[in-house]
Specification:
alpha+beta, 17% helix, 3 helices
């Protein structure tokens, strides 16, 4: 079965608690995930959320992530969607938003064929 894991990274928010309690987080059932601190002076505050669903049931969260970026313009919001089949990554898409505007994206497709 193909699954899609959607990750949302909110980097450098002024008010992390406001991000956690934003309606879009609950509405799209994004669960907060721990972030490993590297304890350096260069570390900025960040929050990571994730949601997993079957490929056929997935909801495109790019637009909600843009809205979240608009709500927290000081933060960098990274949306990453990972499609997996047979325990292999088949498709990866990552989009960065700053101030509600798309700041770039990376997309990689990979087709995994099972032998004949």
């Amino acid at each position: 079965m193909a699954t899609v894991v959607t990750y949302l990274l909110v980097s450098n928010p002024e008010d992390p608690e406001a991000v956690r309690s934003h309606a879009l987080i609950d509405e799209h059932e994004l669960e907060e995930r721990p972030i490993e601190d590297d304890e350096t002076e260069e570390t900025r505050p960040a929050l990571k959320f994730a949601a997993t669903s079957a490929l056929d049931d997935r909801t495109d969260l790019e637009s909600p992530c843009r809205q979240l970026s608009e709500a927290f313009p000081e933060a960098t919001v990274t949306y990453c969607e990972v499609e997996e089949r047979f325990d292999h990554v088949e498709h990866l898409r990552s989009v960065v938003f700053i101030g509600g505007k798309r700041a770039g994206h990376i997309e990689h497709g990979y087709v995994f064929n099972v032998g004949t």
